[in-house]
Amino acid sequence: MRRMLKAGFFKPALVAVALAISAGGAQKAEADNLADALIGAYNTSGLLEQNRALLRAADEDVAIALARLRPVVTWTGSIARDLTRTSGLTVSTTGSTYFFNLLSADWLVYDGGVSKLNKQAAQETVLATRQTLIAIEQQILFRAVAAYMNVLLFTENVSLRENNVRVLQEELRASQDRFEVGEVTRTDVALAESRLAAARSSLAEARGLLVSGQAEYTNAVGHAPGTLAGAPPLPARPASIAEAQAIAARTHPSILAGQHQVSAAELGVMAAKRSFGPSATLSADADLTEFSGSNAYGRGTGISLNFSQTIYQGGGLSAVYRKSIATRDSIRANLLTVQRDVDQAVANAFVRFETARASLVATAEQVRAAQVAFDGIREEATLGARTTLDVLTAEQDLLDALTSQISAKAEESTAAYQLVSAQGLLTAERLGLAVQIYDPTLYYNLVKTAPTYTSKRGRDLDRVLKALGKQ
Fold first, then answer.
1. pLDDT by residue (tens digit) across 120-176?
2. Are 435 and 39 contacting, i.e. CB atoms less than 8 angstroms apart?
3. Number of domains in the chain
4. What is the CATH number of the domain that holds 62?
5. Domain of 343?
6. How far is it, in rounded angstroms, from Cα 142 to Cα 151?
């Protein structure tokens, strides 16, 4: 095999890898950055809208529980007509009665505090649901982060592979030219053809990954990706795993939701226990009865205080009480599991970030060394001390090093935001995104007093619902 290569033949490879490694560094000023992706995800997520609606439903449970502490007022009316059948099969009308029970009111004045406890439990459920909404928000935003970094990674990888194909195409043409003049053998040409075919295969795979990444970005962010501005600045990180776990214990929405769920379950146990006691209901009614064909009528009013207590229900009340205890114990155990899972997630994210950072440093050294090796082997090849295979292998090593470097950069950014999410800090408000932050207290404050449609607050609530597009 001849080892004589032209001195300038492999210079395009240096240009190619330089372009690839700097991809993203010279982006357009109007390119989308990570904040734009996060804003799109926050504003267009159907999952967020779904869980906001679930939170509003939980808000209404407080109003429903409060309504049970108020009087229930109803009215009823009826019309009756008496018909008499005689022995001669004739039918005569003896009169009509118009009965109108003007008003009837029932007011639960005492139930041992069961209704109040149920209202408090509903309030705790609202607080838990708010935290669940924040957890969903974190998932939405982290998905957008991952989608953004993947599109950036896949785009740079495609650029790198395209440059590699162009270099190998030039190399193949040069090998064919040198074969024709007898400088290299058929083996050198075959090697160049093999590497070019492999490079085209890798490029096709990279383009496929980019298409998939763009589809995921569109799903996560709400619009197709344009030109991306490159890797974002890394968020600040805690100094240690213990510090990150301490932050998560105070702020992670899954832990806070679990704590409120335990409180609601505790109140449920208390309510179930008090349901064994008596209850008192105040009842009042006013009625009017008129008779057709006469001036006769009847009017009446009444008020009564009624007491009741379930003495025996086939063991149903006891079963409800035991069930509430078991439910509380289950939720307590779940909270312990959640706390441990959060601690593990924080540790995993912290280690992932540290590993990515170390990998980025290592790949930078790998690229430097591979570049030096490639330059040296290329020069040696021009002197006949290296073969075409040696040069192709060195070039592939450099390509692999560059690929590892861009992957490590994307991994570092993704891991950094995963650590933020693991601490419970990946929210639109904490990130300072330029969005209209959803305030869960606005709707709750409108419905917590259980307003009627005819009240001023009820009319305000109607306007809110119309603004939300629910009516």
1. 999 999 999 999 999 999 999 999 999 999 999 999 999 999 988 988 888 888 888
2. yes
3. 1
4. 1.20.1600.10
5. 11-71+112-278+315-438
6. 14
